[in-house]
Write a structure and sequence with these properties.
Blueprint: E1 4-8, E2 26-27, E3 30-31, H1 32-42, E4 48-53, H2 58-65, E5 74-79, H3 84-95
Parallel strand pairs: 1-4, 4-5
Antiparallel strand pairs: 2-3
Amino acid sequence: MRVVALIPAAGRGRRMGSQKTKAFLPLGGIPLLTRTLQKFAACSRVDEIFAVVPVGDLPLWNEEIFHRPDLKKVSRILPGGPERQDSVYGGLKAIEGRADHPDSPVF
């Protein structure tokens, strides 16, 4: 079974009161999204990863992610939409045809 992980991270994090987007906030010196992607990339059941980030941050994330050898499973970085559901919908549309959909989930 082919598994594609969709990581929606296009939120601005306004409630956190930071100038940086939430995904870029550091945790132990590494951006939160990078740490999340590392965990999914290390999972043997995940074949491919798509991340959804704020439109204006696409160039920064391309630079952060695509040069990292530990994130080779990240194949697409997609622009987020105005609301979370728009970002998730765009990500699901991008995944269409790239992942298997079993009759029942495998856990």
